[in-house]
């Protein structure tokens, strides 16, 4: 569980650093550099081999690359307009929807209602920090996150480790490159800015992926999902500590409701062990 919390903290620390770079590089520029350096790191770790693979396997990587760059752009545009904790909470509705739609439990409809109440609190109680366009970008990022999860299942079966994710990140970097280069402009000649963006790529991609992989080797998947549900709260804390984003009580309550709903949807109670037959 500590590995998972460290992974979530790494992701949100990366998002905080990314947001601090927006004035100089713009969200598209940060996305480009994040995907570029993240792809380099993951490629070195995974060393994917794509030769000889049939087209139906390669097109899954292409689809993942398109979804990945779309998710990053919309999320960064969201946190450019919203406090980090609010943006991540709205985005988290994506994986929550995947968990609920894949379940047959009636209780999950209660979790959906609870999450909806949490988002309503965010929209109504966020004050000047809540931007309608930012909420829309966060919701689209959540949809992309849901598609990312759905694509990751078949890719995980066909490609070991991160050997499917690495080329998808390369494709994402290529797709965003023209927009990212124009957005970053002269900032690309500043080694400090480029170095900070490289750190974003490592904090947001390579490091958390490695930590989550190690966590999955030690935890049941339902426990993994419950602990991962803490990410909106970790994002709000990262925004408070690193970006000095102070939220009112209502947004904190909204974040708490979404965290509770996500944890409830991910939790799977263990079946009671059957009594041994009489001998």
Write a structural description.
This protein is mainly α and 279 residues long. It has one domain. It has 11 helices and no strands. The longest helix has 45 residues. It is globular and about 45 Å long. The termini are far apart.
Helix-strand layout with pairing:
Elements (H helix, E strand, L loop, with lengths): L1 H45 L8 H25 L4 H8 L1 H9 L5 H19 L6 H27 L6 H20 L6 H26 L4 H8 L2 H13 L5 H18 L13
Q: What does the main sheet amount to? A: none
What helical percentage do the residues reach?
over 70%
Q: What is the number of E strands?
A: 0
Cα gyration radius (Å): 19 Å
The structure class reads mainly alpha
User: What order do the helices and strands follow?
Assistant: HHHHHHHHHHH
Brief account:
This protein is an all-alpha fold and about 280 residues long. It is about 80% helix and about 0% strand. The protein starts with a helix and ends in a 13-residue tail after the last helix.
């Amino acid at each position: 569980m500590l590995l998972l919390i460290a992974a979530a903290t790494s992701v949100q620390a990366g998002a905080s650093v990314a947001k601090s770079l927006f004035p100089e590089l713009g969200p598209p520029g940060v996305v480009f550099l994040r995907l570029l350096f993240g792809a380099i790191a993951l490629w070195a770790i995974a060393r994917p081999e794509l030769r000889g693979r049939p087209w139906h396997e390669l097109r899954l990587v292409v689809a993942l690359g398109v979804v990945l760059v779309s998710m990053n752009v919309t999320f960064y545009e969201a946190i450019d307009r919203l406090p980090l904790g609010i943006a991540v909470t709205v985005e988290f509705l994506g994986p929550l929807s995947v968990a609920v739609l894949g379940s047959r439990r009636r209780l999950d409809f209660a979790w959906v209602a609870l999450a909806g109440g949490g988002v309503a609190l965010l929209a109504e109680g966020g004050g000047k920090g809540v931007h309608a366009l930012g909420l829309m970008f966060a919701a689209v990022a959540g949809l992309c996150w849901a598609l990312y999860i759905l694509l990751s299942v078949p890719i995980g079966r066909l490609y070991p480790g991160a050997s499917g994710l690495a080329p998808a990140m390369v494709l994402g970097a290529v797709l965003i490159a023209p927009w990212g280069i124009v957005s970053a402009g002269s900032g690309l000649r500043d080694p400090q800015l480029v170095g900070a963006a490289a750190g974003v790529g490592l904090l947001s991609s390579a490091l958390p992926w490695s930590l989550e992989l190690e966590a999955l080797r030690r935890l049941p998947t339902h426990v993994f999902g419950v602990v991962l549900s803490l990410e909106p709260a970790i994002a709000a804390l990262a925004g408070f500590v690193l970006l000095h984003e102070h939220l009112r009580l209502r947004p904190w309550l909204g974040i708490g409701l979404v965290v509770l709903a996500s944890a409830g949807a991910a939790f799977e109670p263990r079946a009671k062990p059957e009594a041994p037959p009489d001998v």
